[in-house]
Amino acid sequence: MSAGAFGTGAAAGAPRWSTTSYGDTTDTGPQALTALGEHVSLCRAASSRFSRLHCGALAVHGLVAARFVTTLAVVAALIGAVLLVV
Fold first, then answer.
1. Cα 79 from chain centroid?
2. pLDDT for residue 5
3. Cα separations in angstroms, 75 against 35, 58, 59, 67, 79
4. What residue segments make up the domains of the chain, in order of their start?
5. Which of 25, 32, 61, 76 has the greatest CB tally within 10 Å of its CB?
């Protein structure tokens, strides 16, 4: 098994990112543009409706988890109120 791109353990087919031009021109090559296009596509997919729904669910979960006993008391009170009305 090889060390991959620049010894980072990256897969053999992974894009090789560099912050220097090593004396070459600093033009963007076709491989870098392809990788950028794939990255932008993934970012667009991540900002979809389901992503916003997931973020909202995480926020509600964080609120409920932080106040677990209070949430149980409120749910029990609501169930008790519904049973009294019925």
1. 36
2. 46
3. 49, 19, 19, 12, 6
4. 30-86
5. 32
The residues, any chain, with a CB within 8 Å of residue 58's CB and separated by 6 or more, are: none
The pTM for the full model equals 0.35
Integer Cα distance of 56 and 59 in angstroms:
5
Closest among 15, 19, 16 to 6, alpha carbons compared: 16
Q: Report the Cα–Cα distance between both ends of the chain, in Å, rounded.
A: 68
How far apart CA 26 and CA 67 sit, in angstroms, is: 54
Model pLDDT for residues 8-39, shown as the tens digit of each residue: 555 566 666 666 667 666 677 788 888 888 88
Give the DSSP H or E segment for 80.
helix 68-85
DSSP letter for 24, please.
S
Give me the DSSP letters along 11-76: -TTS----S--TTS--PPPHHHHHHHHHHHHHHHHHTSHHHHHHHHHHHHHHHHHHTHHHHHHHHH
